């Protein structure tokens, strides 16, 4: 059975996950990866965003991203791969391979959400492209299209937005390319049509609206690290013990918790330590922040 976007499931039905998954035909292969907390609402997830290409306030992406053309879309995969080329979103994330992953998202600004993504493991995409033995890192780039991305017409940042992962992080089963959320195609403000989600790292690593994936033997230059290296590292693993120079990372504000909700403790690796801590064995995470 194929996943059909015309078969949009209302949010209320989502809470009945089994029938929701059955109705969409989404492969339910990884239920253990779900966060146990209640997901944020579709309203919250799509109206409180960081997508600086559309402006710097939290509501700018919802206000301005509607104009982004996301179809047709091509992702160029290149560098140290056997099969470089231009891939469509359907090539990378065919409907019958799309899985649901409910993950916490912890922004470096100390707010968080729980988001029910749809996507495919990045590992499968890279395996299909054929990773060559010399590859050690994966670099990602967002679309550069100033006609449709108003903040790119200003020199407020060094566009396009760039991110990167070590190859073992990219191949980790928790790392996905997401193409939707809440059973719907990815809203533009969340990074349509295809974005990265790395749930144990600060949200800025989860680059949106990807057009380029490059396998390389060198650690790539990433947007935030290049801009403020003292404040934002290449690794950016969620770590309550390593504070941002200007604020504590010990606690976070869950969006939607309300004024009386209070702050909650931030978990090492955003709570995914059992799955990912071994990637960093022997590393000093205060130095490699
Ligand atoms: N990707 C691009 N291209 N541009 C951005 O400004 N912001 C990052 C990340 N990916 C950003 C981006 C930051 S800081 C966060 S916290 C997450 O996207 C936010 O994802 P969300 O808006 O879907 O919650």
UniProtKB/TrEMBL annotation:
<comment type="similarity">
    <text>Belongs to the MsrP family.</text>
</comment>
<feature type="binding site">
    <location>
        <position position="142"/>
    </location>
    <ligand>
        <name>Mo-molybdopterin</name>
    </ligand>
</feature>
<dbReference type="InterPro" id="IPR022867">
    <property type="entry name" value="MsrP"/>
</dbReference>
<dbReference type="InterPro" id="IPR036374">
    <property type="entry name" value="OxRdtase_Mopterin-bd_sf"/>
</dbReference>
<keyword id="KW-0479">Metal-binding</keyword>
<protein>
    <recommendedName>
        <fullName>Protein-methionine-sulfoxide reductase catalytic subunit MsrP</fullName>
        <ecNumber>1.8.5.-</ecNumber>
    </recommendedName>
</protein>
<feature type="signal peptide">
    <location>
        <begin position="1"/>
        <end position="34"/>
    </location>
</feature>
<keyword id="KW-0732">Signal</keyword>
<dbReference type="Pfam" id="PF00174">
    <property type="entry name" value="Oxidored_molyb"/>
</dbReference>
<dbReference type="InterPro" id="IPR000572">
    <property type="entry name" value="OxRdtase_Mopterin-bd_dom"/>
</dbReference>
<feature type="binding site">
    <location>
        <position position="49"/>
    </location>
    <ligand>
        <name>Mo-molybdopterin</name>
    </ligand>
</feature>
<feature type="binding site">
    <location>
        <position position="195"/>
    </location>
    <ligand>
        <name>Mo-molybdopterin</name>
    </ligand>
</feature>
<feature type="binding site">
    <location>
        <position position="107"/>
    </location>
    <ligand>
        <name>Mo-molybdopterin</name>
    </ligand>
</feature>
<feature type="binding site">
    <location>
        <begin position="52"/>
        <end position="53"/>
    </location>
    <ligand>
        <name>Mo-molybdopterin</name>
    </ligand>
</feature>
<dbReference type="GO" id="GO:0046872">
    <property type="term" value="F:metal ion binding"/>
</dbReference>
<comment type="subunit">
    <text>Heterodimer of a catalytic subunit (MsrP) and a heme-binding subunit (MsrQ).</text>
</comment>
<comment type="function">
    <text>Part of the MsrPQ system that repairs oxidized periplasmic proteins containing methionine sulfoxide residues (Met-O), using respiratory chain electrons. Thus protects these proteins from oxidative-stress damage caused by reactive species of oxygen and chlorine generated by the host defense mechanisms. MsrPQ is essential for the maintenance of envelope integrity under bleach stress, rescuing a wide series of structurally unrelated periplasmic proteins from methionine oxidation.</text>
</comment>
<keyword id="KW-0500">Molybdenum</keyword>
<keyword id="KW-0560">Oxidoreductase</keyword>
<feature type="binding site">
    <location>
        <position position="190"/>
    </location>
    <ligand>
        <name>Mo-molybdopterin</name>
    </ligand>
</feature>
<dbReference type="GO" id="GO:0016672">
    <property type="term" value="F:oxidoreductase activity, acting on a sulfur group of donors, quinone or similar compound as acceptor"/>
</dbReference>
<dbReference type="GO" id="GO:0043546">
    <property type="term" value="F:molybdopterin cofactor binding"/>
</dbReference>
<feature type="domain" description="Oxidoreductase molybdopterin-binding">
    <location>
        <begin position="69"/>
        <end position="224"/>
    </location>
</feature>
<feature type="binding site">
    <location>
        <begin position="206"/>
        <end position="208"/>
    </location>
    <ligand>
        <name>Mo-molybdopterin</name>
    </ligand>
</feature>
<dbReference type="GO" id="GO:0030091">
    <property type="term" value="P:protein repair"/>
</dbReference>
